[in-house]
UniProtKB/TrEMBL annotation:
<feature type="transmembrane region" description="Helical">
    <location>
        <begin position="116"/>
        <end position="135"/>
    </location>
</feature>
<feature type="transmembrane region" description="Helical">
    <location>
        <begin position="41"/>
        <end position="61"/>
    </location>
</feature>
<feature type="transmembrane region" description="Helical">
    <location>
        <begin position="195"/>
        <end position="214"/>
    </location>
</feature>
<feature type="transmembrane region" description="Helical">
    <location>
        <begin position="234"/>
        <end position="255"/>
    </location>
</feature>
<keyword id="KW-1133">Transmembrane helix</keyword>
<dbReference type="InterPro" id="IPR007568">
    <property type="entry name" value="RTA1"/>
</dbReference>
<feature type="transmembrane region" description="Helical">
    <location>
        <begin position="147"/>
        <end position="174"/>
    </location>
</feature>
<protein>
    <recommendedName>
        <fullName>RTA1 like protein</fullName>
    </recommendedName>
</protein>
<keyword id="KW-0472">Membrane</keyword>
<feature type="transmembrane region" description="Helical">
    <location>
        <begin position="16"/>
        <end position="34"/>
    </location>
</feature>
<dbReference type="GO" id="GO:0016020">
    <property type="term" value="C:membrane"/>
</dbReference>
<feature type="transmembrane region" description="Helical">
    <location>
        <begin position="73"/>
        <end position="95"/>
    </location>
</feature>
<keyword id="KW-0812">Transmembrane</keyword>
<dbReference type="Pfam" id="PF04479">
    <property type="entry name" value="RTA1"/>
</dbReference>
Amino acid sequence: MGEKAIDYFTYTPVQGAPQAAAGIFLVVAGILVYQTKRARAARWMYILVGTAIAESIGYILRTVCISHISLGLYISMMLFLLLPPNALALFNYKVVGEIARQSNVGAKQFYLRPKFITWFFFASDVFSFMLQSTGGSMMAQDGLENTGKWICVVGLAIQLGFLAAFVVVATIIGRDPKYIVLCGPRQASEAAAKSRVMWTIHLTTALLYVRSIYRLAEMIDGYGGKLYSAEWAFYVFDFAAILLMFILYIVFFVGHNFPRKSFRMEQI
């Protein structure tokens, strides 16, 4: 008899939930492609599309693992479910960085300069991503479980720290009237457009923070711990949190406020 899912998950995963999650994230990706094309938005908007597809792949792998599990499949599933949300943080960094760039305020503070906002937080995201991917791979290998766990913990803790710093920067830019956002369809003013975009950034970052705290607590609790073995917690604090982020990105689609350069020139 082959390996059983319970040997890896420490519980018997429910059927139906991962299949539904995979389908939902594919639908999300399709909606975001449609919105991005229709708005003729900047190409970096496709970060959201790629993240939704990666989430769907993670749940497809989870579906396969329920009935045909192996070490390789389990590691792949872990990485596809652990790492893609880092790209959502990157998306938020890019949005705030673009607001700073378009506004051309000429801020004296280094932490308000467009390149710093985009590249500093991007570098922190990549560093956190590398630590989490390394730790996630090690956790499934005999003798390296504990080392991998603490590498993941450090990666997640770093992500939480930089997310907190980003919230401070985003709040400063959000409150400063010198920073403007281009109006989208049915937006009465630049102030209204900016308020809508900044609320989207703050709400999605808060959800990402909740998800990251859950993942950090899960790692500290350890493989086979109460939190790790609670499948409901995974679907509430990981799946639901990320899905809510995507719903906010769709409902308050910011692509209208960041059109492609070619499209912007056509409008002038």
